[in-house]
Design goal:
By secondary structure, the protein is mostly helical. It folds into 2 domains: about 1-60, no CATH class; about 65-120, no CATH class. It is about 75% helix and about 0% strand. The chain has 7 helices and no strands. The chain has helices at about 1-15, 20, 25-35, 45-60, 65-85, 100-110, 115-120. The longest helix has 23 residues, at about 65-85. The chain starts with a helix and ends in a 5-residue tail after the last helix. The relative contact order is 0.10.
Length: about 130
């Protein structure tokens, strides 16, 4: 676990998010944990470190990956339901297709703003 913490810290420093995302206190807690503790036994410390790690991971995630996880998945699910309602039963597999979700996320990223409003109102709402 501590090796993972050190690796994550290195990546955050390299990408320039270590000082932007974490407060001074969070950085101190993180570094002291890496230096002083072999195994985290305290529930409170574990929860604090987990929150810090999530902050770093979210900051290190690329915009395409974040949009794939959110918008791309929603669009793939919506398109799969639509195709299935038109009589194509194999379309249900599209919901778990990472490539399709990424493609839809990239399309969404490059879409003009006025079309995004239309998509957000129609495709992304729950039916």
């Amino acid at each position: 676990m501590l090796g993972e913490l050190a690796s994550l810290r290195r990546r955050a420093l390299r990408k320039g998010v270590w000082f932007k995302v974490l407060s001074h206190v969070e950085r101190i807690i993180y570094e002291l944990t890496m230096r002083a503790v072999d195994t985290i036994k305290s529930r409170k410390l574990f929860t604090t470190i987990r929150v810090i790690v999530e902050k770093l991971k979210n900051a290190l995630e690329s915009p395409v990956s974040a949009l794939t996880r959110t918008i791309g998945r929603q669009l793939a699910t919506k398109l799969a339901r639509l195709a299935q309602s038109w009589g194509y039963p194999k379309a249900l597999k599209w919901t778990s297709d990472e490539g399709l979700a990424r493609y839809l996320a990239v399309c969404y990223m490059n879409m003009p703003k006025y079309y995004k409003n239309v998509w957000s109102g129609t495709l992304l709402e729950e039916t």
